[in-house]
Amino acid sequence: MRLPLWLKVGWTIWVLAWAPLYWHQYGVQNLLYFCDLGNFIIALGLWLESRLIFSWQASGLLLFQTLYTADLVGALLTGQHIIGGSEFMFDAGIPLLVRLLSLFHVVMPPLLLWGIWRLGYDERGWKCQTLATWIVVPINYFWRPQFDINWARGPFFREQHVAPGLVYLLAYLILVPLVVYWPTHVLLRWWVGDPAIVAPDRRGRQRP
Asked: What pLDDT digit, counting tens, does each position of 6-62 carry?
């Protein structure tokens, strides 16, 4: 067992508690955010000890969750949202418990990096995230479009009117993998070194 049992059980229990509360607060469409989907997929990755799943989620989530964390910390220290995205954490209209549960955004980056350090890095991860984007974002575009989940209708949760909607959608599906997922993949590959080499675990055994 390369990942601790307490983490697998704890994350699973947390997801089972978090999901219905988020569903009740925001609606089922909210669970299609990549970060929210990531909670379920990471739970699976923990139990399977899958470096592909951790690499997949890191490719799609590291950048945005890190920016979210920076914005939240900046707002706590200065009172200003230097990036944006964490404003809801200070909205008294949202129950405190729901806002506290949203701290999973802060936990995700170190958890994903730690999982890759333990399990190794799989170069197919960014391709899996690209495929997930090609499936999920069109659903976001057509289903409950007023919520603009994953910015399927426009950036920053506002429908854009610069280009026809389907043109924007097509550009999104092409550009986001090239501008976000691929560079993150390159950085992760650089960070772990040669992805063909998986470092030995703490007992000196070679990880498969």
From this structure: 999 999 999 999 999 999 999 999 999 999 999 999 999 999 999 999 999 999 999
Of 112-126, 151-165, 192-206, the one with minimum mean pLDDT is: 192-206
Round to whole Å and give the CA distance between 172 and 133. Answer: 9
Q: Is residue 12 part of a domain?
A: yes
Identity of the residue numbered 183? P
Q: Measured over all CA atoms, what is the biggest interatomic distance in the chain, rounded to whole angstroms?
A: 57
The CA distance from 177 to 149, in Å, is 17
CA geometry: angle 26, 21, 9, nearest 5 deg: 135
- pLDDT single digits (tens) 174-203: 999 999 999 999 999 998 885 444 444 443
SS3 72: helix
Domain count, the chain: 1
Beta strands, E only, the chain: none
Residue 197 maps to a domain: no
Please give the residue range of the domain that contains residue 129.
5-192
Residue with tokens 């057509």: 142
The predicted pLDDT at position 82 comes to 86
